[in-house]
Amino acid sequence: xxxxxxxxEDIVRLLAPRLAYFAGVARTEHVTRAxxxxxxxxxxxxxxxxxxxxxxxxxxFARHGRTxxxxxxxxxxxxxxxxxxxxxxxxxxxxxxxxxPESGKVAFGFLHxxxxxxxxxxxxxxxxxxxRIRFSLVQNYGEAMLERLRAGELDLCxxxxxxxxxxxxxxxxxxxRLRLVVPExxxxxxxxxxxxxxxxxxxxxxxxxxxxxxxxTDDLCAEAGFTPRVAFEGxxxxxxxxxVAAGLGVALLPPPAVPRPGVVELTVTGQRAxxxxxxxxxxxxxxxxxxxxxxxxxxxxxxxxxxxxxxxxxxxxxxLTG
Length: 322
Prior knowledge:
Blueprint: H1 2-15, H2 19-28, H3 31-38, H4 42-56, E1 61-64, E2 67-70, H5 72-99, E3 105-110, H6 118-129, E4 134-139, H7 142-150, E5 156-159, E6 168-177, E7 179-183, E8 193-195, E9 203-207, H8 212-223, E10 229-234, H9 237-245, E11 251-253, E12 263-269, E13 274-282, H10 289-300
Parallel strand pairs: 3-4, 3-5, 8-12, 9-10
Antiparallel strand pairs: 1-2, 5-13, 6-13, 7-11, 7-12
Helix pairs in contact: 2-3, 2-5, 3-4
């Protein structure tokens, strides 16, 4: 079976360079005319056809002086060859189109929490200068996005924490202050500020392990001297806010895109309760012009990536300094 597989690979390698020549001769039924149209020496074309028939072990042409006509085997072969060449042409057009500086494509990944407001705002600002560039948008949690980045399925991703991993390049762009979100009828709801240790006995609702925000929550609680008692684990921050509103626990969350009724958002003091947002890409990966343009745009937004509503409700500046 392995031998057959090797033979198939060999025949593809032998045939592939000659298929366009074959289609040209078949189309014109004249070697000299085909050579002229394809701008190759006639002797090259004649030799290529002889070798093609030899490698296949089949006569593709019946020869009549300078003209040729397809045999039944040649006609069958031509149908598939034209289909294959059409696919190659489509593939070439597709990658060229994606790399077009004016109208190419960017595969961009980002966290769910950035999908409501942050990313639409960024895309609108970018498209003001690049109106025809297209985007393939992927929302996921950090680790899953980094896997897709490594697999070559994404060009760039906005994620948190800022990854520090071999093979990836990452740049810190901004940060969001995290709030302790409590139900509006909670014993702490009348407060504006809180030390995290004061919530040590509460039930927490968090994202699942593997999510960046979960890691930050666990780390901040450990820093405050306790392990959170987790009642519910979810995949999306706004769902967690809903669980808090329903009285099922408290949560450390970035600011909502739209204020949510039923909860109170408290400023955490005594600790630097923030999540950093960064952009990551594959090291040594050549950028197409549209990807390079969008990357440059994202890096230019350092310290002002997030909408002003994100984390600025209490008069503090949550962006980067300097």
